[in-house]
């Protein structure tokens, strides 16, 4: 660890949602690590369906797990003490310090009453993290200028004030209106918060950077804050994303010479990062769709996780996707279900206690001889396992509600055997299986086995090393940001020399 001088915490806050705060924070987690420091990420409150299990078996937002990976450290709930997992447009499950703490209506959650307890938990998590790591790389949420939420805010400027963090404002120039969004974000702050904003990063620039030279000067003049860098938009660096908004835009056309993998585009899809490794595999063309004809053209169909299994299963029956999956499987396509997708592939999904809502029971797709009952208890853990008859150890994690057992009168062959000997999942055949293990597709051994029956359709045969690929991508991201951001000036800011 670089002990020459401790750095002040830094917060990457945004002019709005999806401006690139998470990726910029990941970049600096890797940069600080490369430069000999021991950084750790922190986001007081995250709202996402894409979550991850810590080594202790607790739950945090996936973005902070990615940032921890970039920093080269294990993830921990202190990095994301409050996680909101939307159930609908108005309600979310609240996960506090890694454990479910009930469902809350958005209006009730964001009221001032009761915020002090959450604020104490958030501050305690930050203090524990700051005692172990330096610097702490904080990430804000959405816009820092939501005036109606300021008094109840846990994650933006009040958190920066508690941490005594230098704030770097991140703006997305690709969406337009960068001058108004930056100027408004700065000038709408109270004076004490405005003084805390020490720099601006203009993100997602397309074209010749020289065209924005005058723009940099104008921003600095009207805001009184230095522009530390203009970061070009990139497509050739792959960092796991937090939001699923771009999934449907991925090419849906089947490709000759590759194994075509269709991930069913559920309305409440969760943990879509399960498929990042497979998407980078040169043997595979992966796309997301809820179009029955596009599903019928796939060699492998994957049913992903869902925040609301019964609601999504109901929709699959309504829109014809359930029938298309069954028809594709009868025609020779492989089908893999993960978590909620595994539950849907069974004979039935029951919810007698109304854990997910008002639907008490639905018939499943009938592809696996299992039955699922929803329970209020959430299983969250990292797991080691061996699959089928393969002896190689693999790793993944579970985050699910519900218990899946053999259907009445059925005999189930497990897909996996956990390290304690517990049977997990269901293997009906080499072309039909389900599991609760997220991250199973990050294991090259399992992917090779899964694709083997389809290998004749791929021109390339080499195994893909996802772990090495991710390390390379973090380094490439750090290099990209170093080229376009004045990192030395940021160091002076964090050392109070600027």
CATH level 1 name of the largest domain: Alpha Beta
How many domain modules? 2
Helix content: 25-40%
Q: Indicate the proportion of strand residues.
A: 25-35%
The oligomerization state is: single chain
Strand order of the largest sheet: 2-9-1-10-11-12
Describe this structure in words.
The chain is an alpha/beta fold and 498 residues long. It folds into two domains: 10-238 and 472-494, P-loop containing nucleotide triphosphate hydrolases (Rossmann fold, 3-Layer(aba) Sandwich), CATH 3.40.50.300; 258-458, Class I glutamine amidotransferase (GATase) domain (Rossmann fold, 3-Layer(aba) Sandwich). It is built from 16 helices and 26 strands. The longest helix is centred in the C-terminal third of the chain and has 19 residues, at 466-484. The radius of gyration is 23 Å and the shape is globular. The model has no long low-confidence stretch (mean pLDDT 92).
Detail the topology: elements first, then pairings:
Elements lengths: L9 E5 L6 H14 L5 E3 L2 E3 L3 E3 L5 E3 H10 L10 E5 L4 E6 L2 E7 H4 L5 H16 L5 E4 L17 H7 L2 E7 L5 H10 L3 H4 L2 E9 L7 H11 L3 E6 L26 E6 L4 E2 L5 H5 L3 E6 L2 H5 L3 E4 L1 E2 L2 H10 L2 H10 L3 E5 L1 H5 L3 E3 L10 E3 L6 E18 L6 E13 L9 E3 L4 E2 L1 E4 L2 E4 L8 H8 L14 H19 L2 H8 L4
Structure in a nutshell:
The protein is of the alpha/beta class. The protein is built from 16 helices and 26 strands.
Supply the key terms:
498 residues; alpha/beta; Rossmann fold; 2 domains; six-stranded mixed β-sheet; 26 strands; 29% helix; globular
């Amino acid at each position: 660890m670089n002990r020459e001088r401790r750095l002040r915490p830094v917060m990457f806050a945004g002019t709005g949602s999806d401006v690139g705060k998470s990726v910029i924070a990941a970049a600096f987690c890797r940069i600080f690590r490369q430069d000999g420091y021991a950084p750790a990420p922190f986001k007081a409150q995250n709202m996402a369906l894409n979550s991850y299990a810590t080594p202790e078996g607790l739950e945090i937002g996936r973005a902070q797990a990615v940032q921890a990976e970039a920093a080269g450290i294990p993830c921990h709930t202190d990095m994301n003490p409050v996680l909101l997992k939307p159930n609908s447009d108005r309600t979310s499950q609240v996960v506090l310090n890694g454990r479910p703490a009930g469902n809350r209506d958005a209006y009730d959650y964001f009221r001032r009453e009761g915020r002090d307890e959450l604020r104490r938990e958030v501050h305690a998590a930050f203090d524990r993290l700051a005692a172990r790591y330096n610097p702490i790389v904080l990430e804000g949420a959405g816009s820092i200028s939501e005036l109606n939420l300021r008094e109840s805010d846990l994650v933006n400027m009040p958190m920066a004030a508690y941490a005594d963090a230098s704030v770097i404002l991140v703006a997305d120039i690709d969406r337009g209106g960068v001058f108004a969004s930056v100027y408004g974000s700065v000038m709408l702050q109270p004076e004490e918060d405005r003084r805390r904003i020490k720099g601006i990063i203009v993100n997602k620039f397309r074209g010749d950077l020289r065209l924005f030279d005058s723009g940099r000067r104008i921003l600095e003049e009207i805001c009184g804050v230095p522009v530390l860098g203009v970061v070009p938009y990139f497509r050739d660096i792959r960092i796991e994303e937090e939001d699923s908004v771009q999934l449907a835009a991925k090419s849906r056309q089947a490709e000759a010479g590759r194994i075509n993998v269709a991930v069913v585009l559920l309305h409440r899809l969760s943990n879509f990062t399960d498929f990042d490794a497979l998407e980078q595999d040169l043997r595979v063309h992966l796309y997301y769709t809820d179009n029955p004809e596009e599903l019928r053209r796939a060699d492998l169909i994957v049913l992903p996780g869902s925040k609301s299994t019964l609601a999504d299963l109901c929709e699959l029956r309504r829109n014809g996707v359930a029938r298309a999956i069954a028809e594709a499987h009868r025609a020779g396509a492989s089908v893999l279900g993960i978590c909620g997708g595994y539950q849907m592939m069974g004979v039935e999904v029951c919810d007698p206690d109304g854990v997910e809502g008002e639907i008490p029971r639905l018939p499943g797709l009938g592809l696996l001889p299992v039955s699922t009952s929803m329970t209020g208890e959430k299983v969250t853990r990292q797991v080691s396992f061996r699959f089928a008859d393969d002896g190689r150890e693999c790793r993944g994690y579970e985050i699910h509600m519900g218990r899946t057992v053999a259907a009445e009168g059925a005999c189930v062959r497990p897909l996996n055997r956990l390290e304690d000997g517990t049977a997990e999942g269901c293997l009906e055949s080499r072309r039909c299986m389900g599991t609760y293990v997220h991250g199973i597709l990050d294991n090259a051994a399992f992917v090779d086995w899964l694709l083997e029956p389809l290998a004749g359709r791929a021109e390339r045969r080499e195994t893909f090393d996802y772990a090495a690929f991710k390390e390379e991508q973090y380094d490439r991201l750090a290099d990209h940001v170093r080229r376009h951001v004045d990192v030395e000036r940021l160091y002076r800011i964090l050392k109070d020399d600027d």
